[in-house]
Every structure is written in structure tokens, then in C-alpha cells.
Amino acid sequence: MPGIKTIIALSFVLAVGFLLVILSCALWKVYYPLLVVATYVIAPLPNWICSRVSNPDDFVESGSSSAVLDLGRFLTGFFVVMGIALPIVLAHSNLIQIGAMVMSVVGGLLIYGTIISFGMFFQEDQEF
């Protein structure tokens, strides 16, 4: 069971991630990097939905259950890669500066890492 120090540390890292993304927009007065926040907030949803849809109570792994889990993992990976690639593409097309790209990518990775860490620390153990 995680303690209050874990919650405070994860909240601090999440705040730093959001600060970096917001600063990447505000310092250069171009607000395209805010799209990164949307991709990292949406990223865990397919994995969560697909894990709820698949039936974890089966003793035998069925092909459709495994396919649903694989689809959720694929879509989650797609959103994470899109969150990294979007600022790179925006910088390549000269819509944002290189500094904004770096701040946006680092901030986005901190945001997604914090979301995953919250999920790992506060995951409930399922008992039979």
C-alpha cells in the first residue's frame, strides 16, 4: 500500500510535466504542443477498457480475450508514440521551435509515466 510520500512525489512529477508542456506553449506563444497532453491523457484508456472487456475469470485463455488485450496494448502504444512524434513533426514543419519540442516531449513523458505509476501503485489485487 503506497503512502502519502508516494502520492506527493507522483503529484509533484505530474505537475512538473504539465508545467513543461504549458511552458513549451507559453514561452514561444504557439499552442500546438498542448495536443500532447490530450494524447497522454487518452493513452491509458484503451488498455484499461480492453482489460475490462476481456474476461479475466476464465481458466482457459480464449483467442478473442487475448486479441482484445492485444488491441488495447496496440492502441495505448500508438497514443504514446504519437505523443512523442507529434512535437517532432511540428518542429520539423517549423510550426514550433526545437526548445518547445524538447520541453513538450519531456513533459509528455513525465505525464504518461506518472499516469502509469499511479496505476501500478494503486492497482487492486484480485483474489479468487
From TrEMBL:
GO terms for biological process: late endosome to vacuole transport via multivesicular body sorting pathway. GO terms for cellular component: Vps55/Vps68 complex. It comes from the Eukaryota. Its main location: membrane. Keywords: Membrane, Transmembrane, Transmembrane helix. Pfam families: Vps55. InterPro entries: Vps55/LEPROT. It is found in: Membrane. It is a multi-pass membrane protein. The chain crosses the membrane at residues 7-24, 30-50, 71-90, 96-122. PANTHER family: LEPTIN RECEPTOR-RELATED (PTHR12050), RH04491P (PTHR12050:SF0). Belongs to the OB-RGRP/VPS55 family. This is Vacuolar protein sorting 55. It comes from Thyridium curvatum.
